[in-house]
């Protein structure tokens, strides 16, 4: 609950007896018990109020799935990439209709234009320095 094992609880009880004394210890223990009961009552009331306001959808939420400790970016990327690969290599039945492939407009324009030749300068030999343009930097 609080991460306290049996030995630590015994040590805390001994320290409480020494510091508070046997006369005041029952009084403080009763105050602590009332505090814990009040906190539990408040938590239960808040939970019930939330359930009333949100409705039955709150019970349907899988809270383990939303736990941030489950977040592993490598696993998420791996699963996303594997999903894409599975879609590509998914077997298609011979009777299934073939999907229409949409060609982007930019690709259609690029196909219809003639190829443009870009002049390339002379090749550098081994050990030649690369050209340097002072105005470009």
Order of helices and strands: HHHH
Provide a count of the helices. Answer: 4
Characterize the quaternary organization of these chains.
single chain
Unreliable runs? none
Summarize this structure as a short list of keywords or feature phrases.
137 residues, mainly alpha, 56% helix, 0% strand
Please explain how this structure is put together:
The model has no long low-confidence stretch (mean pLDDT 77). 0% of the residues are buried. The chain has 137 residues and is mainly α. It has helices at 6-54, 57-60, 73-88, 105-112. Helix content is 56%, strand content 0%. The two termini are 64 Å apart. The chain is built from four helices and no strands.
Give a quick precis of the structure.
The chain is an all-alpha fold. It has helices at residues 6-54, 57-60, 73-88, 105-112. It is elongated, with a radius of gyration of 36 Å.
Give me the secondary-structure topology.
Blueprint: H1 6-54, H2 57-60, H3 73-88, H4 105-112
């Amino acid at each position: 609950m609080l991460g306290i094992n049996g030995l630590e609880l015994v040590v805390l009880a001994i320290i409480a007896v020494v510091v508070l004394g046997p006369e005041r210890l029952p009084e403080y223990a009763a105050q602590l018990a009332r505090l814990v009961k009040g906190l539990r009552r408040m938590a239960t009331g808040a939970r019930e109020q939330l359930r009333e306001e949100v409705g039955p959808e709150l019970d349907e939420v899988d809270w383990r799935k939303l736990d941030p400790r489950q977040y592993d970016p490598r696993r998420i990327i791996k699963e996303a990439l594997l999903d894409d690969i599975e879609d590509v290599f998914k077997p298609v039945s011979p009777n299934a209709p073939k999907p229409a492939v949409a060609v982007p407009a930019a690709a259609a324009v690029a196909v219809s234009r003639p190829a443009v030749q870009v002049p390339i300068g002379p090749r550098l030999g081994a050990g030649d320095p690369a050209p340097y343009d002072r105005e470009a930097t």
